Amino acid sequence: MDQRRHQKLTSSIEQTIMTAIIQGQIKDPRVTSDISITEIDLSRDLSQAKIYISSYKSKNELEKAVEGLNSAAGIIRTILGRTLQTRNTPRPIFIMDERIKEGFYLGNKIVAINRADGITAEDVHKVNKDGLDS
């Protein structure tokens, strides 16, 4: 499968799943709209899609959301089958991804270090705007 088609399919899968969640087509109460799809690994033969889920909420709540999505995988596959124009509809496998939470943690650490060193947000903004060579 060429790169453009692969990208189009993964984008369509992401949009379809998030739309289903927001519209309430996934009835599991563990699945809420405050989750994000961070990555989709689509198999070459389109038999499965590993879908990485992240959230800013606690690890426990994220685990429950992933369990809820895996529980609703059959319904989600049916929804994908109606949307995707492919011979095979990939079987969704949802995997917990804590990148968003890790990003918040690292961002807060950087801010704390900068404060300890006397660097203000304005200093950081100036470096980002002007570059390091100015």
UniProtKB/TrEMBL annotation:
HAMAP family in the cross-refs: RbfA
InterPro entries tied to this protein: KH_dom-like_a/b, RbfA, RbfA_dom_sf
Name of the molecule in the record: Ribosome-binding factor A
Function: One of several proteins that assist in the late maturation steps of the functional core of the 30S ribosomal subunit. Associates with free 30S ribosomal subunits (but not with 30S subunits that are part of 70S ribosomes or polysomes). Required for efficient processing of 16S rRNA. May interact with the 5'-terminal helix region of 16S rRNA.
GO molecular function, a single term: ribosomal small subunit binding
Organism field: Entomospira nematocerorum
One GO location term (cellular component): cytosol
GO process annotations (BP): maturation of SSU-rRNA
NCBIfam families: rbfA
PANTHER family: RIBOSOME-BINDING FACTOR A, CHLOROPLASTIC-RELATED
Record family assignment: Belongs to the RbfA family.
Subunit and partners: Monomer. Binds 30S ribosomal subunits, but not 50S ribosomal subunits or 70S ribosomes.
Keywords carried by this UniProt record: Cytoplasm, Ribosome biogenesis
Pfam families reported for this sequence: RBFA
Listed Gene3D superfamilies: 3.30.300.20
Location of this chain's protein in the cell: Cytoplasm
